[in-house]
Specification:
Its EC number is 5.3.1.23. This is S-methyl-5-thioribose-1-phosphate isomerase. Keywords: Isomerase. The chain is an alpha/beta fold. It folds into two domains: 128 residues, translation initiation factor eif-2b, domain 1 (Four Helix Bundle (Hemerythrin (Met), subunit A)); 222 residues, Translation initiation factor eif-2b, domain 2 (Rossmann fold, 3-Layer(aba) Sandwich), CATH 3.40.50.10470. Helices cover 40% and strands 19% of the residues.
Length: 364
Amino acid sequence: MKVDGKPYRTIWLNKDRWSVEIIDQTKFPHRFETVTLRAMDDAARAIKDMLVRGAPLIGATAAYGMALQARIDPSDEALTAAYERLHATRPTAINLKWALDEMMKALRNFPPAERAKRAYDRAAEICEEDVAINQAIGRNGLELIKAIAAKKKPGEPVNVLTHCNAGWLATVDWGTATAPIYMAHDGGIPIHVWVDETRPRNQGASLTAWELGHHGVKHTVIPDNTGGHLMQHGLVDLCIVGTDRTTASGDVCNKIGTYLKALAAHDNGVPFYVALPSPTIDFTIDDGLKQIPIEQRSGDEVTKLTGITKDGRIETVDVVAPGSPVANYAFDVTPAKYVTGLITERGVVKAEKAAIARAFPERA
């Protein structure tokens, strides 16, 4: 995707062909800065501190973290320690474990002297696979948007509501939930996106709105609790969200607040779709409510807000009454019964175990 006319991905190799560059997403929407990863610990910190976020991008960053470790110390002991260190950074997104498993599988049977090159090659492949998957998700989701657009009056936009950031900043490129939106926009279909602010980290207001604006997609930022009202008044044609982990039976774990959007959509007859790459499906679990670990993050994310002052200074301020306890659950689970369909690289799939298994038999 483009930033001020220049094409970018979220992660790439530098000219030295070994250090890795990422976009520091903690600086959005006020600054565009990049950070260089030179060691596995750099990658681990980038994931844990959310310089990178979004399940596919977390996986890609972890893959390059393993490559950075293999460059310094390719021994079995060092790679196993790197695997454990990276795996512990974020507990919910399954792409992290998937990517680490892929890296270990790629390196296990190679002699140590050959592991660094193999690690960089496999990390690059994981990134390219993510881009191709997201493009396919975009094409499949585009058909849903086209069907709604065909019923609209000329020039009337298709109104999409999304939650959190499942855009190109959450992946290597294109995004998951936003890929159909970008393709519709680029194809001349009038489209408008309702962007949930997504408290407490404001990924919608800070990230989704930023990238949609830079690509020229019409959008409106709304408080998180506005979606139900819009649906009641016929102002939302469909919801498309992303996911950090989806069970074999179709339960969807996504940013906190997604479940409430699904309930509102169900009550108002609004289609609720989840865009996901197949590595996000965890075929080892069936019950999302009981089996998916829900990350709890620092209360500072709730009690403090960061913004830019009139004179250009970035400041963090307190917004909660001093001394009040805070709970900060990062994700919730939407049961499969509230999901209209899963937009995958192999088509739109019903959120049910048999349909998911048919779509991905090699993994199921």
